[in-house]
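ingest -> fold -> write
write: protein_1
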Amino acid sequence: MLKEANELNERRKRRISLDELIETVAVHMGIEAEEILSSSRKRLISKARALISYLAICEMGYSGTEVSRNLDIKGASVSECVERGKKILENESDIRQNLIS
């Protein structure tokens, strides 16, 4: 458990701006950052928002309010995105390495 806490602390030290995270996820997923910030409900864009939400809140220590404001979505939606993002990263573990390494 101590090892996990130290790893989380190290990841939070490498915190990047939310704009940079959005751009990184957009490039990784082959979409434009503007699409992530749009009101689109396309599956790929929803997946990108979920990844951003999870990484920003759980890995980098941003608040849900900050993420909500940057993605222009409601707070409850951010919470749902975090849960989806967690599942995505559990099933596709290589994504984390590509996005925050």
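write: protein_2
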Amino acid sequence: MFNDKDLTDVAQLEPILAAADAFGLGFHGTRKERAQWIYERLVRFHYQKLSRKKKNILRRYIRAVTQLSKDQLKRHIRAYRRGKKLCLSYERHSLSIIYTDADRELLAEVDNATGRLSGNLTAQFCADQCAAGDLGKMKGVYHINLVDEVTQWEVLVAVEEINESILKDVLEVAILLFPFAIKNFHPYLNFYRPCYFPERTTAKNGKVTVRYPRKNCMTPYRKLRSLKNWQKYLRPGVTVEDLERQCRMKTPLQAAQEKIAAREQLFSIIIEKHPDTDFPEKMS
């Protein structure tokens, strides 16, 4: 690394900065050594007494050598003004390794199927997956939920199989049930995909704080069940047993994977029949 121990005037740093792009500057050392190096330069060049222009030159020089960001260097300067070196001990907080390679592969499978949810939502999805039970050899129906993400207008349809002939007729009818034009769409939500639900608290000064705690991560169906006397809001003909049966038709992971497969199959059919249709590259 370039040795600048004989430099005492900020003006001497300007030609070095001018040549830095061509020759490069770099610091090789530990975090503690880097903090010591920065502190020594701030002291040697009397940073506090410099003019604004010379302070800027010294900051540029330190950043060129250390590759720190502006905010990182500001923290070092604040520590220098207090007569200290910024070298906080840092230990990355991590959980003990208890997962196998097979566990990691399963988590990657869940991520791919669900579109990579946040940590809390993934945890809730896995919890629902664990509690879904074994479906055995009993074959159920496939439920497709269509929800407009702007208005939350929802249409629910059920099919006995996922294939072109059935999907074509069912989806044509389902789309007509929306009272407005559809730009593009994605299925699967109510029974299997967890959502964040807010928790609002009001302070004495009237300020409302909104949090999204882990306990409030749940599917829309579980949210419905959490409401007081929720059964009385059900549409005539819909029973708790019906909803629970639909929820247990498949595991969350199966539903997510089927959603991915059905979506890909559906759009491949549409693109084949309408090659000029402009669809986004990634449908979520």
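write: annotation protein_2
The chain has two domains: 10-81, 101-273.
The chain has a mean pLDDT of 77.
pipeline exit 0
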